[in-house]
C-alpha cells in the first residue's frame, strides 16, 4: 500500500503544479492605487483605542440637530445628509428585484426584533421578488464566505450588517465591485459601499444616559456603571462618552463592572455594590438587557431605586412605569433595520441617497414613556422598532 | 492525569488486529462515506429547492469553511488520541489573530508567523505541563487556561486590532480553480500530523498512551512527555488556524475563536471522525471527514436558508447519531464492558 | 487488594477527597470577612447562600454523573431552556399556577436526564458527546420554538421560589439548597449511593457483583437533569427572563465538583465536598467582585486559582492513586 502511494505522490504533485500554473485566481480585491491613502486613514482612526475626539464632538452635535424627512417615519429621516447620485446603479430591465442580506446573526433580542422589522419592510414592497438572508451566526469567517456567496448570486443589491468592524472590510470591498452594497449598524473601514446607514452612535448614547445622571444626582454622588463586556467597539464608545460626562460633573464612579449581559450576575454585582458602598446614587448602563435585574437588586436589598438608565426594552419600560422609577432610556433604535431596504430600492431606482445616512436616535424619557410602552409586548422586545405600521404587527413581534 | 477516560477502558492489544480487519467497520471509511452521502443528499435537496450546492462558489465555500475548523480539529485529534483534550483552543485562536495582526502591522510577516507559533507552542507546553506535572485533569487544566487567556484578551484589547498586509491576506482569499489555497495549508498540516501519528515513534507512543496509559508506561513509553508533545502539536495547529483567520479577517479579532465555539466544535468534529474520546483509537483522516460533514451540512442549511437555531438541533442529532453508529458494531465483541 | 492498601485507600477516600476544598472554602470565607466586614451579617450571608444555591444544586446533580464515570455538559442548556420555556409558557397561559409550572419543569428535566442516560448506556455513546449533543439540541430547539427570545413574563408567584423569603427572612432558595444537600447526602449513604460509586470505580467489578450498571448510570443522569431543572426554577426566580440564563453553568458545575476533590472518571469523592466546591467557586466570584480586580483580569485570576486548587488537591493524593491502579488492572 505504501509503495503505491509513493508512486502516486509525484504524479499528484505534477498535476497539482499544472493546476497551480493554469488556474491561479484570487477573490481578494485587486490592490488599486487608492490602497495607499485608505490604509493610512485606517491606522489613524485606530490610534486612539476607540476614543475619537472628532467623532465624539460630531455625534454630540448631531444628537441636537433636526433631522430631514417625514416626522412620523424616523427610519426615513436623515441628519445633515450629503446626497449623492446613484444613477449608475439604476436597475436595467424589468422583472422583480432580488435583494440579498448578509446578517451577522440573530444572537440577541435586538437583532431578532431588527430582522423581523426588515422582513416586514420587504413585504411592503411588491417589487422585491426575492429576499435572500444568510446568517453568519456571529462568525466573521462565515460572514466573509456568505458575502462572497451572495455576490455571486445575481443579487441586485446586497445589504450587509457586519459582525465586526475591521474584519469584514476585505469582503465588503470585494462585493462592492460586483453589486451595490448597503452597510448598516456597524461600519466597515472602506467607503466603497453606496451608503452606510446608522443612528447617531455610541458617544451620543452614552452621553445621553450620563447627562441625565449628572442632572439628577448631586455632586460627588456615587455612580455604579454596568457594562456588558470589554472589547466591543460600539459599547466602548458609550462608556468613554459617559466617563467624560461624569468626570466633568464631579460624580464619583464607585464601580465599573462587566455583567456579560447576564441578569443573574448583574443582580449579584449590584447587591455587592449596595452592601459595600451603602448608598448608590445612580446607575449607568451601557445597554438595557440587564437594567431590570439592577432595579430588582435594590428592591431585594430594601432600598429605593436611584436614578437609573436603561434601554428601550419592554421589561425595563414596564418596570419604569409600574415602579415609578427616575429613569431614562437612550436607544439604539431597531427601526434602522427598515432603512436598508428603503435605501436599496431608492438606489435601484437611481434616486439620490446620502453617502452616510445618519438616522435620528430618540431617547425615551418620562414625558414620552407612554408613547413607547405598548402593553402585552414580550419582555425582550425593543420599543423603538418603528414597527407599528408594518404588516403582521403586533402578533409577529410576539404580542400575545 | 488521564483526561476523560470516563467510559470503558479500550483494549490496546486488540487495536492492532482490528485495524486490519473489515474496512467498512472502520470509522474513517464510515465518516468519509457519510460525508459523501451528506453531500449527495444535500445536492439533491438543494437542487429540488432550485439551487446548486456544488456550483463553483458552493464548492469554494464548503472548502473555505472547513479550513479553520479543520486546522483546530486536526490538532484536537492529537490530544484526544493521547487521552487528553484541549478546551483552551478558542481563546488561543483569538489571541493568535491579534498577535499576528499586530506584529504584521509593525514588523514582517515572517516575525508574525514565528511569534504566533511560538506563543502557541508555549501555551501548549503550559497545558501539557499542568496536565502531566500538576496532575490536573485536562478538562480543568485547559478550561483554566482558557480563563487565563480570556482575561489577557479582555485586559489588553478593546476590539479588532492590527492590520494584515495584503500580501498575507492572499492566504485567506486566493484560490486555484475552485480550491482555496488555504486548503493546502490544511492539507499540509493534516499530512504532517498524519505522518507524525502513524509513522513516527512519537505517534505510536501517543496511541499507546491514549489506549492504556499504565500499560504504556510499563512498556517503557514516557507517557508524560508524549502528552506534553501532543498538547504542543495541538496548539501549533491552533496557531496555524489563527494565522489563517488573521489572513482572512485582515485584522486580529478578540472574539474570532470564541464566537465560532471552536472548542466544542473541534471536539465534535474529532468525535464525528471516529476518534474515541477516551483516547487510543482514531486519527487525523477521520477528523477531516468529520469536519467535511459539518461543513457540508452548514452549506446545505445556508442554501436552504434554514433557521440558525434549527441548525443546532440537527447538528446535535447528527453528532449523537454518528457516535452511536460507531459504537454499535463493537457490541458483538463479548468481552466488551458496558459503557 | 491487600488489606493495608485497602485501609489506606479507604482512609484516603474519607479524608482525602474532601479535605483541600474545605480548607479552600475556609480561606475564601476568611478573605471575604476581611474584605467585607458586613459579610457575616445574617442578611448578607443568607443572600450569599441564596446566590450560590443554583450552582450548589447543579454541583450535586453533576456529582452523581461524574462519580458514576460520566459528564453532563447539558445542564447549562437545561437551565436556559427551562427559563425560556417557563416564560414562553406563561406567555400563552398567564394564569397557570406556579406549582404546576415548577413541577412541569422538574419533570422535563427528568426526561432530558433520562434521555441522556439511555443514549449513554444503551447506545454506548460517551456521555461527553451525548450531553454535548443534547446541549446543542436543547438550545436550538427552545430558541427555534420561541423565535429567539421568550414571549412572556414570569409572574411574581413563580419567581418567589428563587427570589422571595419564607417568614420574611429565610430565602426559599436557601431551604431548597439545604433540602437538596440533605437528600444528596442521604442518597449517597444509601445502597444506591454505594453502587453508584462502585460503578464509577470499576464498571466491570460492579457488574460482576450484580449491579445493574446501565440502570444505575441512567438514574444518575436523571438526578442531574432534575437538579438542573430545579436550578432553572431558582435562576428564573432570582433574575427573571433571560435568553442566556444558563450560559457557562455546565463548566462552572464541573469545575465546582472537581474543586471538591471528585475525580473525573468516577469512583471517588463525596457529594458534600462537591457542594463545598460550588460554595468555594461562588465565594471566589464574590471575592473577585468585591476586591475590584480589574473587571477584565477577573477571569485570569479565576483560571489560576482553579488550576492551582485542583493541582494542590491532586498532589496530595497522587501517590495513593498510583498505588491503586496496578492491582485493579491485574
TrEMBL record, chain A:
* Name of a matching Pfam family: Peripla_BP_4
Gene3D superfamilies per UniProt: 3.40.50.2300
Domain Periplasmic binding protein residue range list: 102-352
Name the segments for region: Disordered.
Answer: 25-50
Arranged from A to Z, the UniProt key words for this protein are:
Signal
Q: Where in the cell is it found?
A: Cell envelope
Q: Which InterPro entries match?
A: Peripla_BP_I, SBP_2_dom, TAT_signal
**Where does the source fall among the domains of life?**
Bacteria
Q: Where is the signal peptide?
A: 1-22
A GO molecular-function annotation: carbohydrate binding
Per the record, GO CC terms?
cell envelope
Q: Which family does it belong to?
A: Belongs to the bacterial solute-binding protein 2 family.
Q: Which PANTHER family match?
A: D-ALLOSE-BINDING PERIPLASMIC PROTEIN-RELATED (PTHR46847)
Protein name, per record = ABC transporter substrate-binding protein
TrEMBL record, chain B:
Would I find Cell membrane among this entry's keywords? yes
Alphabetized GO MF terms: transmembrane transporter activity
What stretches pass through the bilayer? 28-48, 68-101, 108-130, 136-153, 176-196, 228-247, 309-327
What compartments host this protein? Cell membrane
Any Pfam family the entry gives? BPD_transp_2
Membrane topology listed for this record: Multi-pass membrane protein
Q: Among its keywords, does the record have Transmembrane helix? A: yes
Which UniProt keywords are given for this protein, alphabetically ordered? Answer: Cell membrane, Membrane, Transmembrane, Transmembrane helix
GO cellular component annotations of the record: plasma membrane
Could you tell me what this protein is called?
A: ABC transporter permease
Q: Which organism is it from?
A: Streptomyces coryli
UniProtKB/TrEMBL annotation, chain C:
Quote the subcellular location field of this record. Cell membrane
Name the Gene Ontology molecular function terms of this record.
transmembrane transporter activity
Where would you find the membrane-spanning parts of this chain?
A: 21-39, 45-66, 96-115, 127-146, 166-187, 219-239, 296-315
Q: Main localisation, per the record?
A: membrane
Read off the Pfam families from this record. Answer: BPD_transp_2
Q: Which UniProt keywords apply?
A: Cell inner membrane, Cell membrane, Membrane, Transmembrane, Transmembrane helix, Transport
Which InterPro entries does the UniProt entry name for this protein? ABC_transp_permease
What superkingdom does the record give?
Bacteria
Provide a GO CC annotation, any one: plasma membrane
Tell me the protein's name: Autoinducer 2 import system permease protein LsrD
Recall the taxonomic lineage recorded for the source organism.
Bacteria, Bacillati, Actinomycetota, Actinomycetes, Kitasatosporales
Amino acid at each position: 500500500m505504501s509503495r503505491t502511494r509513493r508512486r502516486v505522490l509525484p504524479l499528484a504533485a505534477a498535476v497539482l503544479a499544472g493546476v497551480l500554473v493554469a488556474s491561479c485566481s484570487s477573490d481578494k480585491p485587486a490592490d488599486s492605487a487608492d490602497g495607499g491613502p485608505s490604509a493610512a486613514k485606517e491606522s489613524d482612526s485606530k490610534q486612539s483605542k476607540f476614543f475619537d475626539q472628532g467623532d465624539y464632538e460630531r455625534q454630540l452635535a448631531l444628537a441636537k440637530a433636526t433631522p430631514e424627512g417625514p416626522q412620523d417615519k424616523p427610519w426615513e429621516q436623515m441628519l445633515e445628509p450629503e446626497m449623492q447620485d446613484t444613477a449608475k446603479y439604476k436597475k436595467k430591465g424589468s422583472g422583480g428585484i432580488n435583494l440579498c442580506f448578509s446578517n451577522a446573526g440573530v444572537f440577541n433580542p435586538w437583532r431578532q426584533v431588527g430582522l423581523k422589522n426588515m422582513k416586514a419592510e420587504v413585504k411592503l414592497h411588491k417589487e422585491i421578488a426575492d429576499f435572500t438572508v444568510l446568517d453568519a451566526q456571529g462568525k466573521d469567517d462565515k460572514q466573509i464566505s456568505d458575502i462572497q456567496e451572495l455576490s455571486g448570486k445575481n443579487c441586485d443589491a446586497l445589504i450587509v450588517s457586519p459582525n465586526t468592524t475591521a474584519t469584514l472590510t476585505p469582503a465588503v470591498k470585494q462585493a462592492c465591485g460586483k453589486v451595490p452594497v448597503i452597510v448598516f449598524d456597524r461600519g466597515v473601514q472602506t467607503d466603497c459601499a453606496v451608503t452606510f446607514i446608522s443612528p447617531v452612535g455610541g458617544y451620543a448614547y452614552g452621553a445621553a444616559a450620563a447627562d441625565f445622571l449628572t442632572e439628577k444626582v448631586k455632586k460627588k454622588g456615587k455612580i455604579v456603571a454596568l457594562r456588558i463586556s470589554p472589547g466591543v467597539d460600539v459599547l466602548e464608545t458609550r462608556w468613554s462618552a459617559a466617563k467624560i460626562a461624569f468626570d466633568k460633573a464631579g460624580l464619583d464612579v464607585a464601580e465599573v463592572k462587566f455583567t456579560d449581559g447576564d441578569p443573574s450576575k448583574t443582580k449579584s454585582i449590584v447587591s455587592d455594590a449596595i452592601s459595600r458602598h451603602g448608598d448608590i446614587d445612580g446607575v449607568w448602563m451601557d445597554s438595557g438587557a440587564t437594567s431590570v435585574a439592577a432595579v430588582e437588586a435594590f428592591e431585594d436589598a430594601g432600598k429605593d431605586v436611584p436614578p437609573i438608565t436603561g434601554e428601550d426594552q419592554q421589561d425595563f419600560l414596564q418596570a419604569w412605569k409600574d415602579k415609578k422609577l427616575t429613569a431614562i432610556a437612550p436607544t439604539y433604535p431597531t427601526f434602522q433595520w427598515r432603512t436598508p431596504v428603503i435605501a436599496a430600492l431608492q438606489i435601484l431606482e437611481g434616486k439620490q441617497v446620502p453617502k452616510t445616512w445618519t438616522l435620528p436616535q430618540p431617547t425615551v424619557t418620562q414625558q414620552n414613556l407612554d408613547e413607547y410602552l405598548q402593553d402585552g409586548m414580550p419582555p425582550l422586545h425593543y420599543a423603538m422598532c418603528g414597527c407599528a405600521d408594518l404588516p403582521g404587527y403586533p402578533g409577529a413581534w410576539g404580542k400575545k | 492525569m488521564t483526561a476523560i477516560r470516563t467510559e470503558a477502558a479500550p483494549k490496546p492489544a486488540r487495536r492492532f488486529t482490528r485495524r486490519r480487519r473489515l474496512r467498512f467497520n472502520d470509522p474513517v471509511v464510515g465518516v468519509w462515506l457519510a460525508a459523501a452521502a451528506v453531500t449527495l443528499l444535500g445536492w439533491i435537496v438543494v437542487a429540488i429547492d432550485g439551487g446548486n450546492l456544488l456550483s463553483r462558489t458552493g464548492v469554494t465555500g464548503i472548502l473555505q469553511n472547513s479550513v479553520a475548523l479543520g486546522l483546530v480539529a486536526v490538532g484536537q485529534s492529537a490530544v484526544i488520541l493521547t487521552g487528553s483534550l484541549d478546551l483552551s483552543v478558542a481563546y488561543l485562536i483569538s489571541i493568535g489573530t491579534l498577535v499576528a495582526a499586530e506584529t504584521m502591522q509593525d514588523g514582517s510577516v515572517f516575525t508574525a508567523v514565528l511569534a504566533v507559533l511560538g506563543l502557541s507552542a508555549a501555551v501548549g507546553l503550559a497545558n501539557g505541563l499542568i496536565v502531566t506535572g500538576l496532575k490536573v485533569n485536562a478538562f480543568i487544566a485547559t478550561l483554566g487556561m482558557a480563563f487565563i487567556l480570556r482575561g489577557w484578551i479582555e485586559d489588553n484589547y478593546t476590539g479588532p486590532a492590527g492590520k494584515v498586509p495584503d500580501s498575507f491576506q492572499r492566504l485567506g482569499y486566493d484560490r486555484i480553480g475552485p480550491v482555496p489555497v488555504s486548503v493546502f495549508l490544511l492539507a499540509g498540516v493534516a499530512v504532517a500530523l498524519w505522518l507524525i501519528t502513524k509513522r513516527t515513534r512519537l505517534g505510536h507512543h501517543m496511541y499507546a498512551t491514549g489506549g492504556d496509559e499504565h500499560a504504556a508506561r510499563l512498556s517503557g513509553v514516557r507517557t508524560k512527555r508524549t502528552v506534553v508533545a501532543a498538547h504542543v502539536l495541538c496548539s501549533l495547529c491552533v496557531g496555524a488556524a489563527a494565522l489563517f483567520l488573521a489572513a482572512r479577517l485582515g485584522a486580529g479579532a478578540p472574539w474570532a475563536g470564541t464566537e465560532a465555539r471552536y472548542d466544542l466544535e473541534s471536539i465534535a468534529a474529532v468525535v464525528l471522525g471516529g476518534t474515541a474520546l477516551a483516547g487510543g483509537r482514531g486519527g487525523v483522516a477521520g477528523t477531516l471527514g468529520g469536519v467535511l460533514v459539518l461543513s457540508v451540512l452548514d452549506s446545505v442549511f445556508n442554501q436552504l436558508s434554514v433557521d440558525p437555531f434549527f441548525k443546532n438541533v440537527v447538528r446535535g442529532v447528527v453528532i449523537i447519531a454518528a457516535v452511536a453508529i460507531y459504537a454499535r458494531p463493537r457490541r458483538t465483541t463479548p468481552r466488551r464492558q458496558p459503557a | 487488594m491487600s488489606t493495608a492498601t485497602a485501609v489506606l485507600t479507604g482512609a484516603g477516600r474519607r479524608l482525602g477527597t474532601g479535605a483541600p476544598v474545605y480548607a479552600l472554602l475556609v480561606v475564601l470565607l476568611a478573605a471575604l470577612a476581611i474584605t467585607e466586614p458586613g459579610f457575616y451579617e445574617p442578611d448578607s450571608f443568607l443572600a450569599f447562600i441564596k446566590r450560590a444555591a443554583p450552582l450548589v444544586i447543579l454541583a450535586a446533580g453533576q456529582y452523581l454523573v461524574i462519580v458514576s464515570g460520566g459528564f453532563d455538559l447539558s445542564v447549562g442548556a437545561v437551565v436556559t431552556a427551562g427559563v425560556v420555556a417557563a416564560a414562553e409558557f406563561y406567555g400563552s397561559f398567564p394564569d397557570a399556577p406556579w406549582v404546576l409550572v415548577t413541577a412541569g419543569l422538574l419533570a422535563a428535566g427528568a426526561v432530558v436526564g433520562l434521555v441522556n442516560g439511555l443514549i449513554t448506556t444503551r447506545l454506548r455513546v460517551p456521555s461527553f458527546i451525548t450531553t454535548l449533543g443534547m446541549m446543542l439540541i436543547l438550545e436550538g430547539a427552545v430558541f427555534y420554538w420561541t423565535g429567539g427570545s421568550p414571549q412572556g413574563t414570569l409572574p411574581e408567584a413563580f419567581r418567589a421560589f428563587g427570589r422571595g423569603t419564607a417568614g420574611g427572612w429565610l430565602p426559599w432558595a436557601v431551604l431548597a439548597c439545604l433540602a437538596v444537600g440533605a437528600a444528596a447526602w442521604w442518597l449517597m449513604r444509601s445502597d444506591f449511593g454505594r453502587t453508584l460509586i462502585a460503578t464509577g470505580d470499576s464498571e466491570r467489578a460492579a457488574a460482576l457483583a450484580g449491579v445493574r450498571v446501565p440502570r444505575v448510570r441512567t438514574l444518575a443522569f436523571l438526578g442531574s437533569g432534575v437538579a438542573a431543572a430545579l436550578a432553572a426554577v431558582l435562576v428564573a426566580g432570582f433574575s427573571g427572563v433571560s435568553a442566556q440564563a444558563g450560559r457557562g453553568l455546565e463548566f462552572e458545575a464541573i469545575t465546582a465538583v472537581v474543586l471538591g476533590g471528585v475525580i473525573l472518571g468516577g469512583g471517588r469523592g463525596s457529594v458534600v465536598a462537591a457542594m463545598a466546591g460550588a460554595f468555594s467557586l461562588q465565594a471566589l466570584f464574590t471575592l473577585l467582585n468585591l476586591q475590584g480586580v480589574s473587571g477584565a483580569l477577573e477571569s485570569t485570576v479565576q483560571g489560576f486559582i482553579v488550576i492551582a486548587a485542583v493541582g494542590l488537591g491532586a498532589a496530595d493524593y497522587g501517590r495513593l492513586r498510583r498505588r491503586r491502579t496496578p492491582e485493579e488492572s491485574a
